[in-house]
Each structure stands twice: as structure tokens, then as C-alpha cells.
User: What shape does this take?
Amino acid sequence: MAEITVRSIRFPFAGSVNLDRPGPELDEILPSLALSMTMPYLEPYLIRTMKVALKEIGDPVLAEDVRRFSQQEGHHFRNHALLNDEIREQFAASIAERLRGIEEALEADYQRFSRSKSLRFNVTYAEGFEAMTCAGALAAAEYGAFDRPDMLPGGDIWAWHMAEEIEHRTVAFQVYEHLVGSYPYRITVGTWSQLHYLRYTSRFARCMAEGLGHKLRRPRSPMHRSALRRYLRTWSPRYDPAKIEIPPGVDALLARFSKLAEAS
Ligand SMILES: [Fe+2]
Ligand SMILES: [Fe+2]
Assistant: This one.
């Protein structure tokens, strides 16, 4: 059984988003804000998928992990929805409206996937997304990105969310192995899913950059290279998130957020 703690936390976001930053900082920040914009649609889709998957999961230990996974994702997207309200307010009405349009298109895709795609497809989308974000979260933890809560607008939401993504990293993979198990299907449909998701984050980021009059450049740093390396390892037929070594500091972060949840 994975050790997954459900932490009910609501972060304060009022006044936490300031996009009056130098270009190189915007190159780091906007892709993260784009990620935030997807969460109120992506994470409910994962929860709907896991609700259907639960009916097929015979293993009670995995079923409990899935329930905790879904509860964590529920707290994630509710916080991101609040942060996103602050993000939209930073832009002129025309840009905020375009952001809303991208949100609606993404939600329509996910509702359609839940309605008309197979459980096999939806479980693979979930695993593809989780494997990709976990690679990014591990690289961020490795390079101490969570030690600088002022780096990204929204503060501690990022450290909390990414630490919990690391904490529940095995769940979607184990559900995939339990219900589907095919390596070629994981790679083909999983990669398609990641590209589908990244097309939306790219649309959000470009729209926000345009609103700020900024030309977005791909940030290149040791952390980004580590994220890419970690992502490429997920393509191995021997990939298993349970075997990944967790960077130091993640357990302490999780303990800090457990305390915060208990206090709130
Ligand atoms: Fe999440
Ligand atoms: Fe997740």
C-alpha cells in the first residue's frame, strides 16, 4: 500500500499573483500558470476515471490508494480554481475571455473522453499525465525549487501539489497495470495523451504571454534537463514509479503540509 495522506488545505491567494516580472522569470512562471489553468478540468477527469476504474479493481489495497489519490486530486483542483481566478484578473478582459475559451474547450474534451472513450483509454491518459508530471515534480524537488515559495505566484500551492504528486505517483501506474498492462498501448496512447495535454498548456501560456506583451522562450536549466531525462525513463518497459528514488526534502515537505492541514 502506498503511504498517501489526504490533506485538506485551502491556500490564501488574494494578491499573490504579480506578473510584473523580468522576461526570464516569465519564461519560468507562465508555463506553471498554464498548468494551473488546466487543473480544474484535468483533475476532475482523473477523478471520474478512477471512479469507473474502482468498479473493476478487485484488490482492496489498490482500491484504497485510488480513493486517497482522488481525494488528493480533489483538494488540488479546488485550490487551483481559486488561484486561476486571481490569474485571470491580471489580464485585460479580452485575454481573460480567451483564457476562458481555452478552459471551455479543455473541459469539453475531458467530458467527451469520460462519456465516449473506453476505460482503457481514460486510465492510460491518467497514467500518461501522472508519469509526466511526476518527472517534473521530482526534478523540481531535486533542484530545490520548492524551497523558494516566492518564485511562483500562489506560493506554497506548488510545493504542496508537487509533493503530493510524488506521494501518489504509483497509483495511476498500478491501476494501469491492473486493468490494462500493455506496454505498447501505454507508450502510444500515453504519449498521445501527453501531447493532447501539452497543446493546451502551450495555448494557455502563449495567450498569457501575448497579454503581457512577452515573447515566450523555452527555459533551459539543469532542472529542465533533469525533468526531460526523468520523463524519458518513463518510456522504459521496466519503468515502475515505485522504484524511483525520492529526492531528499520531499518527506519533510509532506510532514510540514500534514501539520498545516491539521491546523486548518
Ligand atoms: Fe494533482
Ligand atoms: Fe496526480
